Amino acid sequence: MNCREILSEIFGLKYFLSPLLSRGSASTQGISRYKLFPCGHLLAENIKKEWVRSCVLRREEPAFLYSQQGNCESETDLQDMFLTTKELSNGKVPFIVANIAREIASQTDSEMKTDLDWRPYFSPSQFTSLRASLFVTPSRGQQLFYHWQSQRKYWWRKFVTPSRGQQLFYHWQSQRKYWWRKIKDGRKKTVPYLIESRLNLEVAALMFLCQGLTLRGDRKVLRLHRRLAPYKVAFLNSTDDELKSLAVYLYENLRQSHIYCLFTPLDSSSKSPGSIESQLSANDKLGVPYSILIRDTALQDGLISIRNRDTTLEEKVHISKVNDYIESLLKNY
């Protein structure tokens, strides 16, 4: 299946990609390119959070995060960040300068490694560049380069679908010298080395969608990692008022715990929510990892069912333990 066919399949899931029609008469118009839609932007935002967690919050080296609107390609921009960060880290290396910037698309994107030729169909004029720059002494440059390269590959593989996880890396690393200011390496002063890792956020979101799209029988399933999925939990609708009230109560508790849920209670004028199977199928297409089913017996024994998207198995959980159970699922990778 080529890139255009995969994009067409993802567009069939709705909410992640929006088509851009080619110009021409009504009879010749067709889908020429795609852009991210609301759920696609939520996916991209979750990728950015995990990137910051990995490159800034959980690093052994001191790491400092910068954010800017313009392109950060000039020597002056990186030099200013280097000198400021060097002062914050008391002049010691290694340290990391992490930068999030909105940039204009350029030829640089073609240098990134991917097994899908996405450029003819998905080429945003601006993109979000996530760049982590590790400054080190020359004596440790080669060692840390291979170590960090291994860590970034592991980060990517951690989130992709296992069956296709070996096909794609979307980080690239480089190693080079910079002349701005000498640093101490033992008793002598020397020129620092820069090891750089860069990620195009919008295209990374597209690649995760391409990797996650699978088939279960004749049903499409979007297997997004639970840390990246736009919605972590979805509630199945019911026409029973008491069950609906219980679902609203659980939904509000989960939202207070900062767990992003999908639930749209039906009113009397709404059409039937459909069968359980049809609702679960819709949740699978949205990549929701966990669906909550509240059956009639929940009003007597207080137990609800939490269904896993990947295994399709259901587990009974008491109403009082739902928050703790969901939090424990999302906490672990």
TrEMBL record:
Start and end residues of each Anticodon-binding domain: 233-328
Fetch the SUPFAM superfamilies from UniProt: Class II aaRS ABD-related (SSF52954), Class II aaRS and biotin synthetases (SSF55681)
Q: Which GO terms describe its cellular component?
A: mitochondrion
Pfam families hit by this protein = HGTP_anticodon
Q: Which GO terms describe its biological process?
A: mitochondrial DNA replication
What is the name attached to this protein's record?
Answer: DNA polymerase subunit gamma-2, mitochondrial-like
Q: Its encoding gene is what? A: LOC103518974
